Amino acid sequence: MPGLGMGRRRPNNIVLVGLALALILFYALRNDTPEAPKLIPSPFRTVTRTETKTVTNTVHVTTVLKPEWDNFQESELEEHRYRPDGLLEVNHDGPHPIFKLMKDAEKEWEKKVQGASKTLVEAVREYRRRYKRDPPKGFDLWWEYAMEHNVQLPDEYDQIFHDLEPFWGIEPSDFLEIQAELETKFDSYTIGKAIRDAPVGIITYAFTEGRYDHLIAGCKQIIALLKDIEHLLPEFRMTVSPHDGPNRLSDWGVKHATLEAAAAKTHIEREALPKVTTTGWISACPPNSLARRIPINLDKPPPPSSKKTFIYDHKKTMDPCINPDLFYHHGQFLSHNNGPGPQTEMIPEFSYCSTTLHHNIRIPVPYGWVSDVNPRVEDPEFNDKSDERLLWRGSNTGIFHATHTRWQNAHRDFLVRYANEYEGTVDVLMPNVKENERVGAPRKLKKSSINSALFDIAFTKEPINCSERVCPKLLELYPWRPFMGQAQAGEYRYVLDVDGNGWSGRFKRLITSNALIFKSTIYPEWFTDRVQSWVHFVPVQVDLSDLYDALMFFRGDGNGEGSHEDLGRKIAMAGREWSLKYWRKEDLNAYFFRLILEYARLMSKDRAAMSYTPNI
Questions:
Q1: What pLDDT, in 10s, does the model give residues 491-523?
Q2: Is 606 a residue whose pLDDT tops 90?
Q3: Any idea where the Glycosyl transferase CAP10 domain is (predicted)?
Q4: Which in 65, 465, 511, 571 has the greatest CB count within 10 A?
């Protein structure tokens, strides 16, 4: 009976309909309706994601989710690794390292400038804190000179301390004996003052016959520089090597013994110095150093590292004991293969430059000094310079080129070959990232596509410093271009500075320009503690493994894409300002003045009497 059956089910249908309406009303009034799940986009690139939810077999609801950049924090990026060899090892999940390197360097420089002593009392206290002794006699006169001539950073003379400290451990009478012997050795000249009221002049010299005019040239520049302060200087004698590079290779055991004696405020006699047991470059390195642990085989250079690195501590990267790769890449070392024998004692010879392996005492060389790049019209503003390639011109110095020398990998030869290769690829960190984006893995770029757009690097004129057999090979192997005048060079926005036979004498002129200077060197100089890499210039490793990455960060890729020219201009302008403010002739004299005061005290048999001991 259908009628009866329908009659019995109707109440159930009504109940079901009522329940359905109640449930619909219940959920409609609730505020906790399930939301679509939020997807957290990668903070490193713009991504549009599409999420699809199936409601029935035929209906789809699409939700477009956008990256939440506003909520991204720099802390979400990972940290780079700061290695003890002075290199930052890149973490590809971190930001481009140059952002961090510049920020940290600016903070360090600002701290140094703000913390400088402002009174003689503060300077004496800071001297005692750093060096654990009183300043030298005449320190008050030095302070007056520094203040009168607006010399900046009056505390930053640590290089003098490091150069002279080993000699504090030598018995004074032995020190004077060594100095007297040194004055008679060939290829040296001695300048000084026999009495206080005398001018600074040449006391003696010992040159190979016929080389006087050539070797005395640097001496004349120094004497001319010191004219302004000679009336303030005490009696002194300093023997100087006239050559470009250093010549006094240290023995670690000998130097360590003198440093220990100096720290204990005692002396060690010449006869008691440790015997030299090692030869070559590694003799200057500590027994547990990397250079001692890894055999140096110049016939089998180590392969390039697969890790991307940048310099964060320039001075550390100049030390072959912790960066033994330098032995394979610089003419200073390759010229002598595994290295000469070290000195059996500490010889107080001054030189125009020195490495961390030598104990030559470096001086503020006036060679190459300029007050400014003149005429100024030949040095356009950074943004007005028309050529965005990296410029370098120079002679093939740094090593003698002969069949028996390893000139192929010397620093200048390697540079010119490296920049003019058109076969193969190079891994480069892409510059088109922001400070809050991950730098990512490097990309392989064809050298044939980018080198001519990035570099204008060549030797000038014709080969020099080479044997008759090798000179023609150099002419075929490398590009040789005419000498470039200042006006033409002034059109380049980026300029590279590298060592020659010794330190670079052109750095002063280059950093005084409006260009951004990239600098590669193994020589800590008198101003190393008084300048800041990544604030005033861009430091580059000797093997040039970071050159592409650093250059492309500032100027962009071959087409200029992804550039950070504003940051490049910032460093270029800071470098020029630093040169005009911190590298004047007065600054050279302030360094020389303080160095001579310190050395005059060392030459005294009564060093305590040659100290400045105010009751402060």
A1: 999 999 999 999 999 999 999 999 999 999 999
A2: yes
A3: 318-606
A4: 511
In angstroms, the CA 95 to CA 361 distance is: 40
Q: What's the average model confidence in pLDDT over 180-196?
A: 95
The C-alpha atoms of residue 93 and residue 89 are separated, in whole angstroms, by 12
C-alpha pair distances (Å), 304 with each of 198, 307, 424, 516, 522: 56, 9, 15, 27, 19
What is the distance between the alpha carbons of residues 136 and 142, in angstroms, rounded to a whole number? 10
Instruction: Note the pLDDT of residue 249.
Output: 98
How distant, in Å, are the alpha carbons of 336, 519, 570 from that of 469? 20, 32, 47
Task: With CA atoms as reference, report the closest residue to 320 among 345, 369, 284.
Answer: 284
Handedness of CA 535, 529, 510, 143 (dihedral sign): positive
Q: Is 443 helix (H, G, I), strand (E, B) or coil?
A: strand
**What is the amino acid identity at position 236?**
F
Euclidean distance between CA atoms 349 and 185, whole angstroms: 11
pTM score: 0.87
Q: Shortest CA distance to 135 belongs to which of 608, 583, 571?
A: 608
Do residues 325 and 390 lie in contact, with contact meaning Cβ atoms separated by under 8 Å? Answer: no
Q: Using CA atoms, how far apart are residues 206 and 201, in angstroms rounded to an integer?
A: 15
Q: How many residues does the chain have?
A: 616
3-state secondary structure of 268: strand
> Which of 98, 35, 88, 53 lies closest to 553 in space, CA to CA?
98
Q: Can you point out the beta strands (E) in 270-386? A: 309-311, 350-351, 361-362
The answer to whether the beta carbons of residues 425 and 444 sit under 8 Å apart is: yes
Burial grade of 193 (CB within 10 A; 0-12, 13-18, 19 or more): buried
Rounded-to-10 torsion of CA 522, 525, 531, 536? -50
Q: What is the pLDDT of residue 555?
A: 96
- What tokens were used for 380? 């356009």
pLDDT tens digit sequence for 464-490: 999 999 999 999 999 999 999 999 999
pLDDT at 281 over 70: yes
